[in-house]
Amino acid sequence: MNQPCGKIGINIMYGLDKNKNFSESIYDIADEPVLATLFTTGNGYMGVRGSFEEFGSQRIQGAFVRGFIDEIIEVTEPFTDNEYMKKYYLDEEKLKTFEKQDSCVNMHDFLAIKITVGDKTFFPWDGKILKWHRALDSTSAIYKRELVWDDGEGNKTEFVFERFASFADEHLYCQRVKVRPINHSLPVKLMSGIDTSIKTGGQFITKTDLMQIEGADIIHKYHATNKYGFSACYGIKNAFPKGKILGQYDYNGTVGVEYLCDADKSYTFDKITYIVTSRDTDRDICDCARERIAAGGLDYDALKKAHVSAYRAYFAMMDVKIEGDDEADAYLRFASYHTAISASMNDSIHGISAKGLTGERYNQFVWWDCEIHQMPFFLLTAPETAKNALMYRYRMLPQAKKNAARNGYDGAMYAFCSSVEGDERVWQYARHPFMQIHINSDIPYGIINYYRYTGDREFMINYGMEMILECLKFWISRVSLKGGRYEICRVTGTDEHHPYVDNDAYTNYCVKFIFDRFISLCDELSYEVEASLIERMRQISEGLYLPMCDNGLIPQFDGYFGLSRSLEEQGKGTLKQFQMKKSGLYHKSQIIKQPDVVLLYTMVDVGLDRAHFAENWDYYENMCEVSSSLTFPVHAIAAAQNKQILSFRKNLMNTVKMDVDDIHGVAWQGVHSGCLAGGYLAVIYGIFGLSVKENDTICLNPVRTLFEGVSASFIYKGMKITLSIKNGELTVTKRGSGKVNIRVSDGETRALKNTLVYTM
Question: Where in the sequence numbering do the catalytic residues fall?
Answer without folding.
Answer: 496
